[in-house]
Amino acid sequence: MKLKKQVTVCGAAIFCVAVFSLYLMLDRVQHDPARHQSGGNFPRSQISVLQNRIEQLEQLLEENHEIISHIKDSVLELTAHAEGQPALPHHPPNGSWVLPPESRPSFLSVSPQDCQFALGGKGQSPDLQMLAVYSLLPFDNQDGGVWKQGFDITYEPNEWDVEPLQVFVVPHSHNDPGWIKTFDKYYYDQTQHILNSMVLKMQEDPRRRFIWSEISFFSKWWDNISAQKRAAVRRLVGNGQLEMVTGGWVMPDEANSHYFAMIDQLIEGHQWLEKNIGVTPRSGWAVDPFGYSSTMPYLLKRSNLTAMLIQRVHYAIKKHFAATQNLEFMWRQTWDPDTSTDIFCHMMPFYSYDVPHTCGPDPKICCQFDFKRLPGGRINCPWKVPPRAITDANVAERAQLLLDQYRKKSKLYRSKVLLVPLGDDFRYDKPQEWDAQFLNYQRIFDFLNSRPDLHVQAQFGTLSDYFDALYKKMGIVPGMRPPGFPVLTGDFFSYADREDHYWTGYYTSRPFYKSLDRVLEAHLRGAEILYSLALAHARHASADGRYPLSDYALLSNARRNLGLFQHHDAITGTAKEAVAVDYGVRLLHSLTNLKRVIINAAHYLVLGDKDTYHHDPAAPFLSMDDTRPSQDSLPEKTVVKLDTSPRFLVVFNPLEQERLSVVTMLVDSPHVHVLSEEGQPLPFQLSATWSSATEVVPDVYQVSVLARLPALGLRVLQLHRSLDGHATLRSSTRLYLHGRDLPVRKPEAVPLQVFPAAADDFCLENQHLQACFSGHSGLLQSIHRAGEEQGHRVSSEFLVYGTRTSKDKSGAYLFLPDGEAKPYAPKNPPVVRVTEGPLFSEVASYYEHVQTMVRLYNVPGVEGLSLDVSCLVDIRDHINKELALRFSTDIESDNTFFTDLNGFQIQPRRYQRKLPLQANFYPMPAMAYIQDMQSRLTLLTAQALGVSSLRSGQLEVILDRRLMQDDNRGLGQGLKDNKRTCNRFRLLLERRTTANKDDSLPSTEAALILHRKGFDCSLEAKNLGFNCTTSQGKLVLGGLFQGLELGSLQPTSLTLMYPLGTASNSTNIYLDPMEIATFRIRLG
């Protein structure tokens, strides 16, 4: 029980900031330069006349700014055309490359209104703040007796005389969609039998109840059962015997998953339930994720669920909450100024969700009431006292023994209503277990309910039966805060189930697949946008009959495979090796299919004359710019073969903001000419392509061009084979061999200098910053921001963690190091390669187990403010080692650091010296940062990894783990299937100015999901821009979907199950800071 080439996605740690490049393989394309793609106004409350006038003035000012901006752009464009040729970057003597002035401002202002969220008050303080709870607890792990991690529970026999104890026993079966077996193997061996028996056995007695959560399994079973059995299921759901809890495609991991994928799998499950059964989930059930993020309660709340349950929380926190009767609480977002995000949460108090740890504090007694363990079965009780079948002769004694456990457990909670789960992994897979559990428990219930003197009412129930009874006892409607119950903010990372066994290793385990997960997410987002736009345009032109509507099935399958991988043994890297391969094959299959969707949609959208569109699956019009030969290989970039006819590159920007970005492609000749779609020559950087530290790939060159990409738009570039022109800007390369005798293959068309010895320390710079590196190691040493008198020490180094030499050791779940990390000590010094060019410069350092590259873009906008860092890791010859990357700075962070939760929000962390080193690591799905009063250093990541700050001014990330043994959490394997993995980051240094306070066919509608960020304006204003202004939460849809009419806009709950308000054709939308909102949108 559970417990060579670089990755294509990084961006600014918003995984969806990706550019999809497609090669136009035919020269017959027709494109329209005027084609670029560049909402219901639902007021929250009545506003004053004065506020209306202020907003009108602001609108007028915005319109004036837009008019002036358009005039300025027109003048600049006319000036550029008049000059005949675009200005080129130039390289002054003893200086760095200088770009010509941009025709538009690189950074636009952030409205003061958008700063109010970060600056404003946070509302009423919560009763329980998890950072404060961690500071309060001693974590002393005292022996609690029969409840080893708790304390002795006592009660008075007459405590329930006035208000009887109401007990709900909730039968459940936890089905992992992959762990020891693959998803399909589990289904055929166990899950289908569980569900088939469920239909039969539940109909035998209307008092029986059952809950189910994994819709991935349920949908597969549904596709293979008869109409008669489907009707029986609908009856069981309708009469309350069967409840679908949470209703997601899986029970997702909450540490590594991005909120995009968390929402996507919720939508997939909820939409399936609505379509096939007509049910809407009410309660959340998460018994097995290894720690809990505060993002999930927000998503459940916005999906109209009213309550939720969690289990795997640090044993010391459980003990503390049990002692203070705080195991049930209203979970509130830290940024919520009122109560709009509150959701009722039940925390299970004991070690596990299995039967021995759910009836009460003594597992030896509770195990006697797990009737699957009756003598003669395949499993028994470890405490050596087996269950006994319930008979008339023993029912009184047995029921009294069980009631004592129920009463003790109820003392940990504030109400006289008690929840008792009854199940475990893949339980109820045989009819005999259904009979053993339900018949024996019913005899106990009948006895207890027939004895008024015992003051107890016991029955089978669903999860919502329990919550409804609690609400009724408290006299409130579902979702309200029960009187006297606490409010909690924060999260429940990191998790320990016993001793110092912290589940912090899985934050990094199998990082290759964590990276592939984000690549698939980015492609799914891009494919859904392009498909929706193409289909809307096709319908607008009454041409949807010619468009491949079958692509919708590919999108649906990709959503489901992405959802499946969010399972808490998939993205976590904690499944068997064969299961990990199965996940990888599914991810790659969906990635390939999504590229087909992107190709077909881009093909249609790029055509000027849509009537010429013809879909031929055997001969696709476009080709993607990279391929993956297998599920465990890194992407290989496509090399464009140039000839006398032009080749076209179609670049897609999936962001709702205009983007200025460097687009890089590989070509087979240095003699190339790049034109805009208007036919203007574009300056580009020509660089060599390297296959190793000292060898170039013959006849393959990098062409990098600066492109301004419209929001949600496509741009076409032309590639010609031609003699060198004035727009060809060659990068220069220096290669430092560090005394090693290595053969060097030089590029033909790009200058290269080879130095036998190591370099002196050196720097790269652009208009925003200067990054300096060690000539000996090739690693970063400092960053100096333009306009500041002094630079900052920001030095990087590689470290290695070992594992304990005795007793328990690190494994897929656990991180149990043998002490502090030791410096990485390779056999040979690194080869260092320095490349400098007009659009980017980079430093590549080749070590035995890691190749690191730090790139500085010399471009306007946010891309030039940070360092692009990649680490190609290969530790397949290591034994029980974990490779880490540490940044050490002069920032006085005072043992406080910040990590994100699911890419949605930021959570402060504090290094706890009273806890072991491994307890101070946290998940980093998107970013982590340290700061003091003057500066902030942020590490943005393209894949989820574990992170910590073990000393003031440090930030440390675990890159990969290779472990030779199991860590005794049920997997039965170590981590020995490592891959060559490219981890991508952005390193951003900022100056602070203030102190911080239908599955087969597409619907006529699309889902529009919006997230308004909450800005922190304690940083320089220019660092906040994405080449766009903020909008104070307002979004005008007309500017995004040009050429299309807005048919209707219907606000809904997060997963589209509940309409909120009425539909309209207004194009204006307003959101509060941090909120996510979903709309049904019809374009045509």
Automatic annotation (TrEMBL):
Cofactor annotation comment: Binds 1 zinc ion per subunit.
The protein's UniProt keywords, in alphabetical order, are: Disulfide bond, Glycoprotein, Glycosidase, Golgi apparatus, Hydrolase, Membrane, Metal-binding, Signal-anchor, Transmembrane, Transmembrane helix, Zinc
Per the record, the domain of life is Eukaryota
Give the main location: Golgi
Required co-factor(s) are:
Zn(2+)
What are the recorded GO MF terms, alphabetically?
Answer: carbohydrate binding; mannosyl-oligosaccharide 1,3-1,6-alpha-mannosidase activity; metal ion binding
Question: Which cellular compartments is it found in?
Answer: Golgi apparatus membrane
What Pfam families does the record tag this protein with? Alpha-mann_mid, Glyco_hydro_38C, Glyco_hydro_38N
Q: Cite the Glycoside hydrolase family 38 central domain residue spans from the record.
A: 501-587
Pathways involved: Protein modification; protein glycosylation
Tell me how this protein sits in the membrane.
Single-pass type II membrane protein
UniProt catalytic activity? N(4)-{beta-D-GlcNAc-(1->2)-alpha-D-Man-(1->3)-[alpha-D-Man-(1->3)-[alpha-D-Man-(1->6)]-alpha-D-Man-(1->6)]-beta-D-Man-(1->4)-beta-D-GlcNAc-(1->4)-beta-D-GlcNAc}-L-asparaginyl-[protein] + 2 H2O = 2 alpha-D-mannopyranose + an N(4)-{beta-D-GlcNAc-(1->2)-alpha-D-Man-(1->3)-[alpha-D-Man-(1->6)]-beta-D-Man-(1->4)-beta-D-GlcNAc-(1->4)-beta-D-GlcNAc}-L-asparaginyl-[protein]
List, alphabetically, the Gene3D superfamilies matched. Answer: Glycoside hydrolase 38, N terminal domain, Glycoside hydrolase family 38, central domain, Golgi alpha-mannosidase II, Golgi alpha-mannosidase II, domain 4
Q: Which CDD domains match?
A: GH38N_Man2A2
Enzyme Commission number(s) = 3.2.1.-
Q: Name one GO cellular component term.
A: Golgi membrane
Q: What does this protein do?
A: Catalyzes the first committed step in the biosynthesis of complex N-glycans. It controls conversion of high mannose to complex N-glycans; the final hydrolytic step in the N-glycan maturation pathway.
Q: Which family does it belong to?
A: Belongs to the glycosyl hydrolase 38 family.
State what protein this is by name: Alpha-mannosidase
